[in-house]
Amino acid sequence: MSDFIELSSTLGAELASLNGDQRVAVTQKVSNVVRAGPGSGKTRTLVARVAYLLEVEIPRRQGVAAITYTRQAAREIDDRIGRLGLKDRHRLTCGTVHSWCMSAILRPYGPLVGFSVPLEGAVIDDNDGTWVRTLQGCFDDLGIPNNAQYERAAVTKIRRELAAGYSDERTRMVEAAELFDRKLTELGMFDFDSMISSALKIVSQHSSVGRLLASRYPWIVVDEYQDLGPVLHKLVLTLHERYGVHISAFGDPGGLFTSLI
Q1: Quick one: 36 and 97 in the same domain?
Q2: What pTM, to 2 d.p., does this model score?
Q3: For residues 48-74, b (16+ Cβ closer than 10 Å) or e, as one string?
Q4: Tell me: the pLDDT tens digits for 86-95?
């Protein structure tokens, strides 16, 4: 625990205004999951949780990563933290899962451990012509008659399951998904899924990186956890179980929460 244990007046007032369940969620000293539906004050509780961790639980040399699903959510959390008057806001890293994987894992550590890092303009999505043409080339190379335009969702699902280690099935579509990832690498291109899967590989294969991340971010707070998919889930579990990072997961009931903590 940090030697800074006195709450600021602003945070103290915010805690006093929460209901009992919200206050428990904010002040727990261990990893926790908060399940709540829309309109329940979930975001307010998350913001108070981040502020409390920074003021009370985490030493001044360390910080919190607040990971969100959208840029809009990241801006809202950051704005609300600002309104609480939190000191040392530089200790908070708040952004989407993709921006966090890029700024906290890929860019600082990728070159050191032999992983490619996305260059400016090298990140595409499955609506990009290059993405679709590359997948179609994989189908053509493997003699798969499917049209890549209509198989984007299916291939994305397979890639995520493979990256998270949730599938060992061998089918032609699995072969196409694996070939697609190799071709993206050869082209020096990344999409949003490969950014997360590369971050997971770095953390899983290089314990020194995992320990450095845990030292910098002893706590990770995740918003809308149920929407963030199996690869982020595996990344969070790896950081939590292997490197001792504490997790606060916020989201709607169900989804991946059952196996989180």
Answers
A1: yes
A2: 0.88
A3: bbbbbbbbbbbeeebbbbbbbbeeebb
A4: 767 789 999 9
